[in-house]
Amino acid sequence: MYYKLKAITSLRSLDIKINAIQHIGIPVTDLKRSKTFYERLGFANVMQATFDEKGEPGTCVMMKRDNMIMELYELPESGLNEIRSRSNGHIDHVAFDVEDIEVAYNSIKEAGFNIIEPEPVFLQFWERGCKYFNITGPDGERLEFNQIL
């Protein structure tokens, strides 16, 4: 059986320096339980911060082991039903580490990808913060481009 692929963007490769997968984001329903689970696998909590989710505070923890980072985040109570109702897994996004978020954003925009945010978003994560933006892939998967400042 043959499938016809629909052209989504230009076939040329973008000139963006992607260093590696930066982290994998997982929404969790019990942050304490999830932290303990990943600690048992040898991960350590290297960053914890709150974020705003529709006017309510959520909590994000970055768990690191060697060069792997798992982002565990707990939404406020009002957002937990969405997480609990998922039946096909809980990986929310894959994040790519980029050297220059503005260059990456402009290149992605110029190439015609579907960008979710109108501009790179700053978060007070890590020591000096980070900036990120997301695109959606052909099956709706979310790919994040992230620069730790």
TrEMBL record:
Pfam families xref list: Glyoxalase
Alphabetic keyword roster: Metal-binding
Record-level GO BP terms: L-methylmalonyl-CoA metabolic process
Gene Ontology molecular function: lactoylglutathione lyase activity; metal ion binding; methylmalonyl-CoA epimerase activity
PROSITE patterns: GLYOXALASE_I_1 (PS00934), VOC (PS51819)
Record domain VOC: where: 20-148
The name this protein goes by in its record: VOC family protein
